[in-house]
Every structure is written in C-alpha cells, then in structure tokens.
Write a structure and sequence with these properties.
Elements (H helix, E strand, L loop, with lengths): L1 H12 L2 H17 L10 H20 L20 H19 L3 H12 L4 H8 L3 H25 L2
Helix pairs in contact: 1-2, 1-3, 1-5, 2-3, 3-6, 4-7, 5-7, 6-7
C-alpha cells in the first residue's frame, strides 16, 4: 500500500517530501484505527481516502498548488539509440507530466487513481466521495485537457 499511497500523495502535493509525510501520517491514522478494521469493507479505499484528505490538508496549509514534480527517478530508459529522438521523447514526457500537474485537483486525483493505479470507477468514487459519473466526467475532461494542450504545444510550440 505504501507505494500506491505515495503516488497518490505525490500527484496531489507535487512534492516528494510532503508526499512522504502524508504517507507516514496516513499509516499512523490507519494503525490507530486498527480496532475498526473488521468493520471496514475495503481497507485499500479507506487508506486512499485518508491519504487524499491529508494531502489536501497539506496543500491548504501550505497554499502550493502549482509546484512542479521532481522527476529524477521516473525517467525510464528508452530503446532508441538516436540522441535526437531520445531528447524529443524526454521533452514530450516532461510536457505531459507538467500538463497533468496543472489539472484541477479532482481531475488529477481521478486520473492518478484510474490511469496510473488502475482502480475501478466505483472504488475511485468511494475514495473521493463523489459519484461514478463524476469520476468518469473528471477523467474525460482531464484527458481532453491534456490532449488539447499537448496538440497545441506540438503544433505551435506554446
């Protein structure tokens, strides 16, 4: 669960250190409620909900919605040997990351949980406290937004 919680917290806080703090706080809260675990239907959704709420609290306290993520360990080696092509791919990957980071929080969270974590719509709705339809709309809008801005950048270099 730690890695899933960390990725969600990182996607919301956009800071490695804050994401680590959020995960630690989440684990402490979940552990302190260990007596209630039998009554919890989906412990993973429970943990993700706590993590999301704590990450949002960190953002509100700090007031930082638009910092960029440090991507040191996310870059994966590519099979292309052409340096120009490698540079273009790295630039495109960084552009997509920046576009995802600029999304509104709900869209970013829905996209993180669905596209990166592979969670079903129903579970995402439970975690975020919204309906499945709202989850689908947020994901659709996030994808459209990223697609449109990516195409604008590719066509016009904006």
């Amino acid at each position: 669960m730690k890695n899933v919680l960390y990725r969600l917290a990182l996607r919301i806080t956009l800071s490695n250190e804050e994401a680590e703090d959020v995960v630690q706080e989440t684990m402490m809260k979940v552990w302190s409620r260990r007596d209630d675990w039998d009554g919890i239907e989906n412990i993973e959704a429970f943990c993700l909900t706590i993590c999301r709420n704590l990450a949002l609290d960190h953002i509100r306290k700090k007031g930082n919605n638009n910092e960029s993520i440090e991507q040191k360990h996310y870059d994966s080696p590519d099979r292309t040997s052409n340096p120009d092509e490698l540079m273009i791919q790295k630039d495109r990957l960084q552009l997509v990351r920046n576009l995802v980071n600029q999304l509104p929080e709900k869209q970013r969270s829905c996209m993180q949980l669905r596209d990166f974590e592979g969670k079903p719509y129903k579970e995402i709705a439970t975690i975020l406290g919204i309906t499945e339809e709202q989850v689908k709309v947020n994901i659709f809008r996030a994808r459209q937004n990223i697609k449109q801005k990516f195409q604008e950048h590719e066509q016009y270099g904006l």
